[in-house]
Amino acid sequence: MREDIIKNKIKEILESLELINDNFPASFDEFQNLGIVKDGIYKRIEYAIENLIDIFYIINADLELGIPEDDSSMIDNLEAKSIISISVRNLMKNMKGFRNVVVHRYGKIDDKLAYTFIKENMGDFEIVIKCIENIIDRYQ
Questions:
Q1: Considering only CA atoms, which of 46, 41, 48 is closest in space to residue 19?
Q2: Which of 22, 31, 88, 118 has the fewest CB atoms within 10 Å around its CB?
Q3: Separation between Cα atoms, residue 18 and residue 67, nearest integer Å
Q4: Average of pLDDT values for 19-35?
Q5: Contact predicate 45/10, CB 8 Å
């Protein structure tokens, strides 16, 4: 398994999450008025989620689990092959859905929904990263 690449991507995720946490305000009113900082938070959350998806593609390829049609089928395949749990699959699908909103509707994002998602789901990254570390340990 390409452990070095995966660990580098995890490092990039953690750096993004730290930047988000350092700049994420305590209230929605503050968040709504952040201007370009808010845009930076959106880009960093998008980048962190993209890196998680990239890691799972690497795992899927390195374990020779087949060529997925798309992100969702790749995530489903990892769960079907017992590489990840159903709960991690669901967390990833939730993150992927949010990333799609950020990517495809950037100018029309509902800031309240985004604020709530980020505030309530930051801990999900830790869960998924722990899962990835366990996969690395299992297949070393």
A1: 41
A2: 22
A3: 33
A4: 96
A5: no
* All residues at 6 or more sequence positions from 58 whose CB lies less than 8 Å from its CB, including other chains: 1, 2, 5, 6
72 vs 106: CA distance, rounded Å: 21
Instruction: Say which DSSP state 129 is in.
Output: H
Contacts of 69 (CB under 8 A, 6+ apart): none
Q: How many domains does the chain have?
A: 1
The model's pTM is: 0.94
Angle between helices 111-138 and 3-23 (to 10 degrees): 150
- Find the CATH number of the domain harbouring 53: 1.20.120.580
Residues 74-125 have pLDDT tens digits of 999 999 999 999 999 999 999 999 998 888 765 578 899 999 999 999 999 9
Mean pLDDT score across all residues of the chain: 94
In this structure, the chain runs to a length of 140
- Kindly tell me the sign of the dihedral angle through the C-alpha atoms of 102, 104, 106, 112: negative
